[in-house]
Amino acid sequence: LNDPGRILDFQSGGLAIYGAVVGGFIGVAIACRIYNLPLLRVIDAVAPGLVLAQAIGRFGCIANGDAWGAQTDSPFAFVYTNPDSFIPNRLLNVPTHPYPVYDMAMNFAIFGLLLWLRKKPLPNGALFATFVAVYAFGRFFISWVREERIWFWGLQEAQVISIVGVIIATVALVWLFRRQNQGPLLHSDGLPSGV
Description:
4 strands, globular
């Protein structure tokens, strides 16, 4: 807030996954508008690849230490020793929760869920909304093992955004299913007309 110009300072980091998903969604929405593509079908098509990319991207987090967990005595802890990693110096040589592994496992599980759901007769947009709801729900809980700044109510930034994400995705799912139940007739390809 004191230096708004840093909002666009992406080369210094800070975009994080929620920023990437929101920014990507806006970019896809703009592209769909420009090229006259059906937004809900496009975001459904993107959802499995997006969560798979998140899972694969966590390998980079493991290597560079930019998504660390809190200190732990777990036998599965990570210990970063390279002073050039992104982990704070006070956590160098300190066992920390392998947070990127937790997130990676969750993302691979969500990827499997989305592949299974793709074969179900869902309304357009429901696959993406399911991704948002399930990821945000899981992220809320695995964030407890992170060591991050508390925003309010004893919650971290990612947890607050997770709550908002679950609410928005749940409302979207309810709306999409209600619209499907009372909405336009399906074409022979199983897709509603105009979507």
